[in-house]
Amino acid sequence: MVASVRRVFELWGLYARLDMLYVLRGPQIALSFYVSDLILGMAAVTAMFLLGYALLVRGTIDVFFNYNISFISRRIGRGQLDHVLVQPQPLWMVLLTEGFAPVTGAGMLLPGLLLIGWSVEQLQLSVTFAWLALLALSLACSIVVVLAFSYAWGSLAFWAPRSAEELNSSTWQLLTQLDVFPLDPLPTLALTGLLTFVPAGLVAWYPARALLGIDASPLGWLGLPAAALVLGSLCLFIFMRGLAHYGRTGSTRYLSYGHRR
Hints:
mainly alpha; 13 helices; 0% strand
């Protein structure tokens, strides 16, 4: 037994020397190994930060916009928007408050915060007031992007309630299945599409680059608020047009030929 253990350590020493000799053949060999390992290690931690941020966005939406407030196509297609419109308070206030679910919707907040905290520690980021402010601003803008995308497509239920009722289920899956991936290796055309037509890159990848210092340019932290403003304005225009149409036609839910009868 002792001889076997000694032999194991002897072989470890042998292969350690061979491994060292392989690296010491030249500086380019050593650099290629250690730099590539450093990049891969940083990428792994960065991916954890990206995942944590994405979970934080989803968790915050689940807390503040639950009960189909974020899935507005269901509210519209099922005729439930009438229940909102008859309440003695503005529509925006109902949409901002009725989906608040801090108990049942907070399941993703803790994992997201833990992953972000672990990533910050591993990357040794300097957490200053400015960094926390950027995190809060980025989180708010990411939520606006997700809701704007959801409401813009969900507004189609104003014109086609039956066929578009579950449309936001698909838009939600489309964003959440793509927002956790690092998009750096993508070609320009694909990356452009994921920052515009399907803005999954704006949900987590783009703000994570700014928060991690990968993109320290002014566009790195101004691009997301600008995109949120543009998408929010476009969404508001589409939603208000749909609401005006809904005001003229109403819901078919309670009619004799309605799909819920």
